[in-house]
Design brief:
Chain lengths: ~220, ~220
DNA sequence: AATTATATTGACAACAATGTCAGTACCCGG
DNA sequence: CCGGGTACTGACATTGTTGTCAATATAATT
């Protein structure tokens, strides 16, 4: 059977049942699996065969839906981006006009931690795949605008002068940086200094409070 | 010449000069090249052949010095760790007993940005290669201790009560998180909101000031 | 029921990357 | 000048991964 001359003409397998999904459903399944692998195993765990095995399909099926591995990666990025954007904006815009930053901070951190979004995006940035993708522009811009709006409102009510916009921007940047950092090195750091789950919560609250004080008391 | 039967008995190349380094020198060269590639191209740019080509040697030479690719990676990690540790500690311990956090913050950010150390370590964490390596424990612990010491001193001079140690810890964690975050997403974020190099500097100063105020005014 | 469209598959091709090995050139100490 | 140790190399082996292709099964439509 070494050099058997059956290029492509053998019934061989009468074969059995085959699950057939809608294209959309299949894409979702694949993306979910890829996301999970990425979050758990890191960038090098993103192999078509593995993903395929995880959900019980063959790897060419993935190629069929995403053209190439690169296509899959791009789709992954796109989804993560829009998901993140939605989460953030609803978190910020969501009904409650509380001036308390605590909730916001919590939301931001969780949105990034959730499903390893931050890890995914970090990896994207580390591999330099970010230039093409201009969505970031909008996200960050929108968020800062929303924040500044709230802050201005709040300041007016309290009879204070509208705070500098750059100050608001810096608060947002710090939060973003910290959240990203935490998503990556957080666990390690916490473990290194002997912080448990509850300690991490305390840290987040501490940070929120720090921002809160600055929010009100801003020079 | 398709199936030429010359398994390993052909003079073929009289060959020319060959550079011969000391083992130590060679290792350093290789590590530098690897580091550079990692910082520029990200994790996927770490291919033996590429590194070898960069410094004009053959890839088995790398294998010769590091056993395997994994060996190279481990050496890379180890070096980055000790370098980081040294930089941080000298930065903190360095003569000037200034209570001004600005310098410290600057040092931390720069130590992590420098040569892509943060990117390297991030990648290490993303690929989950961190468990084995317990150096982090010491680094973070030492730093927090040093900080707390300074803070206690400073508080005593000012006649204030010694601040809570967890508070100091949280300041350190925030700084570390922010620095890591900035190293990864910083450039992108800054670009997204239209901050130039000078803006980034302003941001760091702003952050340092925030910490400074907290340092003195601690609840 | 027949037809069409396409999601899915197994086998294979092509390529890239690490790792192995025998041999070669350079340095150093006699 | 000679001999031993070892940094280094070219060619090859091996393995793993993406991508291609023809064939097949399944759902929807007519």
């Amino acid at each position: 059977m070494s050099t058997a001359a059956r290029t492509a003409a053998n019934p061989a397998k009468p074969a059995g049942k085959r699950i057939r999904r809608t294209a959309e459903e299949a894409r979702r399944l694949i993306l979910d699996a890829a996301e999970k692998r990425l979050a758990q195993q890191g960038p090098e765990g993103l192999r078509l065969q593995d993903i395929a095995r995880d959900i019980g399909i063959s790897h060419p099926a993935i190629l069929h839906h995403f053209e190439s591995r690169e296509g899959l990666v791009r789709a992954l990025i796109a989804r993560a981006n829009t998901q993140l954007r939605d989460t953030m904006l609803t978190a910020l815009g969501g009904g409650h006009a509380s001036s308390d930053a605590t909730d916001h901070i919590g939301h931001v951190f969780e949105a990034l931690s959730d499903r390893g979004t931050a890890r995914l995006l970090s990896w994207l940035l580390l591999t330099g795949r970010a230039t093409e993708n201009s969505t970031t522009h909008n996200i960050m811009g929108e968020i800062v605008d929303a924040l500044q709006l709230r802050r201005a409102e709040y300041a007016e009510k309290a009879g204070k002068p509208t705070p500098d916009k750059e100050d608001t921007l810096f608060m947002a940047m710090l939060t973003a940086n910290a959240a990203f950092g935490e998503a990556i090195v957080g666990r390690q750091l916490a473990e290194a200094v002997g912080l448990d789950q509850d300690g991490i919560k305390r840290f987040r609250n501490w940070f929120a409070k720090l921002l809160n004080e600055h929010w009100d008391g801003g020079k």
